[in-house]
Amino acid sequence: MERMMPGKTRAAAVRIFAAALISLVAGACDTMVNRETEQALREYEQKIYVMKNTVTANDEKLVKGQKVKIKVFWGKDWIKIRGYAADVDPLHAEQVLMLYMFKSDFPEDRFSMETLQEKFGEIAQTARQ
Length: 129
Known about the structure:
Blueprint: H1 7-29, H2 35-44, E1 49-51, E2 55-57, E3 60-62, E4 67-74, E5 78-85, E6 96-102, H3 113-121, E7 124-126
Antiparallel strand pairs: 1-4, 1-7, 2-3, 4-5, 5-6
């Protein structure tokens, strides 16, 4: 192998491969939401909300005035909030897409909890306990 790839060339190839691997792994872990915000979103999921408007997705709907719980999902450049009836077991509930936002929907293409809350607030509000 040394005859095919001299020491300096082999070292350069290893460095290029390592840099590509690090870039690939870092890119796979890159999401819109950091750990601190993830905790805030998980707390957001613990509340019960009341629908301000009826939301329909496919054949499922959440009706104005209905109490709902939510699940928040996110990826590298998007965030979704799905809702389901508060009185239904989450494992058996039909989830309805309530909000779907992309990086470009946020100021400076960066996730903002305030912007998410503002948009979500147009659809539902926290239920009175």
